[in-house]
Amino acid sequence: DVKVTQSSRYLVKRTGEKVFLECVQDMDHENMFWYRQDPGLGLRLIYFSYDVKMKEKGDIPEGYSVSREKKERFSLILESASTNQTSMYLCASSWGTGELFFGEGSRLTVL
Amino acid sequence: DAKTTQPPSMDCAEGRAANLPCNHSTISGNEYVYWYRQIHSQGPQYIIHGLKNNETNEMASLIITEDRKSSTLILPHATLRDTAVYYCIAPLTYSGGGADGLTFGKGTHLIIQP
């Protein structure tokens, strides 16, 4: 089975802190994605990567950056966390244009 | 860029077939339609996908209209555990070419009534 693992299930950070959310997949998938999910807004794409060191902006990249130094790992970085970044963050991976496999999510609270 | 629209919520009686519609009127010829569902507090789970023909697997059936402008996900004998939010998306190829169609939107909240 494909496994997408997100490093932290729950995080609490303070405004202005730098936050790293890590995601690892074990199926050699070329594509990896970061979404955020907020009540009433569905899942919105932040960034995705289709290869190592490659990244493209999704619908809401502002305030975020990403890093993909190895194929299996995709990191989401909040350079200076703000309260409006309190959300559920979901990582996913896929092969080609196939189905997305999601992790369990990381619930971030910024105080 | 194929955007999809779905009703916000639906009810279905346990044991009945649940039919969830999705409109994707701007879909292009090479875009598949994918369905996922999300049970509370979990990541979305893939259900089924199709291009032109109807598809069936152990979880559901997918009916795509001949003009491909809409589709219906069918859960043939809904159970209480099928209560979830269901999403349809129609992603364009995105390996180096952008991520059109990969935003899931709000989906349909399906509630199975006992």
Task: Note the topology.
The complex is a heterodimer of chains A (111) and B (114).
Chain A: E1 4-6, E2 10-13, E3 19-25, E4 31-38, E5 42-49, E6 56-57, E7 65-70, E8 73-78, E9 87-94, E10 101-102, E11 106-110
Parallel strand pairs in A: 2-11
Antiparallel strand pairs in A: 1-3, 3-8, 4-5, 4-9, 5-6, 7-8, 9-10, 9-11
Chain B: E1 9-13, E2 18-23, E3 33-38, E4 45-50, E5 55-56, E6 61-64, E7 70-75, E8 84-89, E9 108-113
Parallel strand pairs in B: 1-9
Antiparallel strand pairs in B: 2-7, 3-4, 3-8, 5-6, 6-7, 8-9
Q: Can I get a quick summary?
A:
The complex is a heterodimer of chains A (111) and B (114). Chain A is mainly beta and 111 residues long. Chain A contains no helices and eleven strands.
Rounded average pLDDT of chain A: 93
**What is the CA-CA span between the terminal residues of chain A?**
37 Å
Give the helix proportion of chain B (percent range).
under 10%
**Biggest interface between chains:** A-B, 29 and 24 residues
**Helical run tally of chain A:** 0
Q: Tally the beta strands of chain A.
A: 11
- Unreliable stretches of chain A: none
Judged by helices, strands and strand pairing, the structural class of chain A is mainly beta
Main sheet record of chain A: 7 strands, mixed
Low-pLDDT parts of chain B are: none
User: What would you report as the Rg of chain B, rounded to the nearest angstrom?
Assistant: 14 Å
- N-to-C series of helices and strands of chain A: EEEEEEEEEEE
